[in-house]
Amino acid sequence: MANYRDPKLKVFTCNANPELAKEIAEHIGVPLGNAQAVRFSDGECQIKLNESVRGCDVFVIQPTSAPVNEHLMELLVMVDALKRASAKSINVVIPYYGYARQDRKARARDPITAKLVANLIETAGAQRVITMDLHATQIQGFFDIPVDHLLGVPILAKHFSEKGLSDIVVVSPDHGGVTRARKLAERLEAPIAIIDKRRPEPNVAEVMNIVGNIEGKTAIIIDDIIDTAGTITLAASALVEAGARDVYACCTHPVLSGPAIERIGNSNIRELIVTNSIPLTEEQIIDKITVLSVAPIIGEAIIRVHEELSVSKLFD
To answer: Any idea where the Ribose-phosphate pyrophosphokinase N-terminal domain is (predicted)?
Structure first.
């Protein structure tokens, strides 16, 4: 590991994804900060900072993935500890932003929990957020501090480019993901198709019809989050029935809850490509799933923030 030249840059982690934090620290060339997120016997969270952070630019790596409330609380307490220890700046790196799907009032009397989480992070003392592929990009506006929004598409596109697939069509599993699909399609120089679906209730998707030509083509379905995998596996079946030659799928955030792994294992998906924004358990690591690392892109973003350089240049 090369040593980063500025000792005032420090990287810490809690318990959500320590392996990713280690990778990011190695990419930057700094040791991972000496801190622990522990529990009292009644379950309360305690943060122990075992080194000085006075006058430092500190970056805390903590996706708010399952168990989301535990990991969110760890992040808030860590930020408070850093603030009281006189860190010069506190930057929270949230590769996966939990509660992002509660970004608006879908029904009367609904909370907007994504905004509440933003308020909590700011009130704790964070001065900047670095995140990746927010489910709803307007969540950036829920914060009154700078938000650097990183993209997973370049990482996914590079993987597919290296596979040398032919006759590709990039498929959005719904109308909301068209922009994401178009970004991948531009990088792969491929057309796009859209699956027009109706969702009768949460976590239940019903495929309606496919807009675009997919017959005889290699279809790549792209989404930001795969949760129970109902949408993605139904989409794969619909594509095969409509004449697709092969079906691949990809996403940035592999939530993979409930029946997801069983559904993916039994699906028409040849390969599912995900990132390590959320760590997979042993049970979730199956032959069909390929994990790509987001550590290099997050590491570069951290260096650029610390050196006051443009982060958007990473995606030019």
So the answer is: 9-125
- The pair of three-digit structure tokens given for residue 230, joined into one six-digit string: 């109902």
Binding site for Mg(2+), by residue number, is 135, 174
Binding residues for ATP are: 42-44, 101-102
**In degrees rounded to 5, what are phi and psi of residue 256?**
50, 60
Q: Residue 66: is it exposed, middle or buried by C-beta count within 10 angstroms (0-12/13-18/19+)?
A: middle
Torsion sign over Cα 274, 276, 278, 280: positive
The residues that are catalytic are: 197
Domains of the chain and any CATH numbers = 9-150+295-314 (3.40.50.2020), 153-285 (3.40.50.2020)
Cβ 126 vs Cβ 91: under 8 Å? yes
Q: Which pTM does this prediction carry?
A: 0.94
Query: Can you spell out the DSSP letters for 74-127?
Result: HHHHHHHHHHHTTBSEEEEEESS-TTTT--S-SSTT---HHHHHHHHHHHHT--
Question: Helix (H, G, I), strand (E, B), or coil: what is residue 172?
Answer: strand
State the binding site. Answer: 42-44, 101-102, 135, 174, 199, 223, 227-231
